Amino acid sequence: MDLKQIFTQNLRRLRAESGVSQMRLAELCGTSASYIGAIEIGIRFPSMKLLAKIAEALSVKPYQFFLEEEDNAVPLRRAMFRPDKQKYLLQKYILTQLETMQRQVKRY
């Protein structure tokens, strides 16, 4: 599964677990429900700024959208990255960038 698929799957799951509708998430993020829907099915991908807003609205950290579960029975919060080095390095880079963006968004 690629990172975009991991992201969309986790977004749908985290939104559902939070009990937030696409409409409500869109309101909280200042965007449209159709745009949130397009993100959830992988047609669109959010900017880092919108990603930070989505994470805040769902009360999660942005990196949680990119964690891959080892087993469907294992909760996401305990999920580990797969040992593949290239994939690990890419995920580490993305997480670092997301955390940097999150700090920058909080400043404004």
Description:
It is a single chain. This protein is mainly α and 108 residues long. The protein has a single domain, classed as lambda repressor-like DNA-binding domains (434 Repressor (Amino-terminal Domain), Orthogonal Bundle), CATH 1.10.260.40. 60% of the residues lie in helices and 0% in strands.
Provide a concise account of the structure shown.
The chain is an all-alpha fold and 108 residues long. Helices cover 60% and strands 0% of the residues.
Provide key terms for this protein:
108 residues, 434 Repressor (Amino-terminal Domain), 5 helices, 0% strand, globular
Any guess at the CATH architecture?
Orthogonal Bundle
Oligomer: single chain
- The amount of beta strand, in percent, is under 5%
CATH class group? Mainly Alpha
Number of helices: 5
What's the helix and strand layout?
Blueprint: H1 3-18, H2 22-29, H3 33-40, H4 48-57, H5 85-107
